[in-house]
Amino acid sequence: MDEFSDEDLLSQDNTTTSVINDSRTSFADSKSRPRLLTRAEILDAYEEKLEFKDDKEMVIENVSRVGLAKFARHACKQSIDSALNTVAWKTLGYLNDENGLKEVPDNPEILFSSASDILKSGIEKLDMDCPLFNQVLNGGMKCGTVTEITGESGSGKSQVCLHAASVQAVQGNPVIFLQTESSFPLSRLSQIILERSETEEEINETMNRIFIKKIQSYSHMLSVLNKDIEALIKDRGVKLLIIDSITAIIRGDKDIEDVGERTEILHSVGSKLQVLCNKYKISVVVVNQVSSAIDYPGHTYGRKVIPSLGPMWTTFINTRLFVSKTDFKVSKE
Question: Which residues contact 316 (CB under 8 A, 6 or more apart)?
């Protein structure tokens, strides 16, 4: 039998006590340490936050790695990256909500189009049924783009919108018309359609292709663009979206407190319009008002007014039409 001194026994007791304490500490740490969130839990919670708090969709334009990391503090980097990738794939249309990822391409080239393919496919244009407009627009309004119509009060901006809506409806293309100013000029629309229709049945069919909604505020506009409008575009095959006007909901809304908030709202609206253009290949027409060009540092082309909303807004439009009154008259020969 081995013999131990009192010092050896004391050393063994201290070692045993230390092991027990270390085990208790490890157990306590495991109980207090929060469980790491999974990808699915991050996505579900963040989607609920976007929908109910921010009134936004769960698309890549509204999600960032920094935002996810701040929101899901108890999540590892791998889960954050996986969640972000899932949102990106979903935005591109490769995610099935029920069955998870579906037909995700192995070759990244499938996500791009070659210059040759684009040239062969061409760009669809909407005929304006007006030689002057078609000439200025190089054949018509391009699908997949945003066209701004601006000019002084009474220059005919709304008239152009009514003309475009009626012409497309007569041609069989459904139209969405978001009205922000006063009441919708239904009688004028009916008059334009009547001039292009031969029977009462044709008039009714044409009127049924134009979907009108009154917009009350910028928050209402964002709600319609983010929630309601896509279902109608997909269901009816809408080719033209008109907003008359974007300026009214920015200038006339008293809830907008400062320039920073206005910039954020314009960015949200402009980004969503570009998403709709690219996703559904529709043409978007937006009416903008004008402001005085006093002390304006840029080129005004001899005009005393410039389009409103500032230079940041121009990043979201592809074509700008400046309309004005003249003494010229257009008539059929």
Answer: 146, 266, 269, 270, 271, 273, 274
Contacts 24+ apart (CB under 8 A), 234-237: 234/280, 236/174, 236/209, 236/211, 237/173, 237/174
Within 8 A by CB and 6+ apart from 168, the residues are 126, 175, 209, 239, 240
Tokens read off for 141 = 């309004």
User: pLDDT band for position 33 (50/70/90)?
Assistant: low
What pLDDT is stored for residue 240 in this prediction? Answer: 97
| 257-273 per-position pLDDT tens digit | 677 888 888 999 999 99
pLDDT tens, residue by residue, 52-107: 777 777 877 788 888 888 888 888 888 888 888 888 877 776 665 555 555 666 66
Q: Which of 225, 239, 308, 212 is nearest to 268 (CA)?
A: 225
Beta strand 240-244 with 283-288: parallel, antiparallel or unpaired? Answer: parallel
> CB 233: neighbour CB atoms within 10 A?
19
CA–CA dist 253, 181 (Å, integer):
12
Give the three-state DSSP class for 49: helix
Q: What is the pTM of this model?
A: 0.66
Q: Exposure string (b/e) for 260-298, b if CB count within 10 Å is 16 or more?
A: eebeebbebbbbbbbbbbebbebbbbbbbbbeeeeeeee
CB 288 within 8 A of CB 247: yes
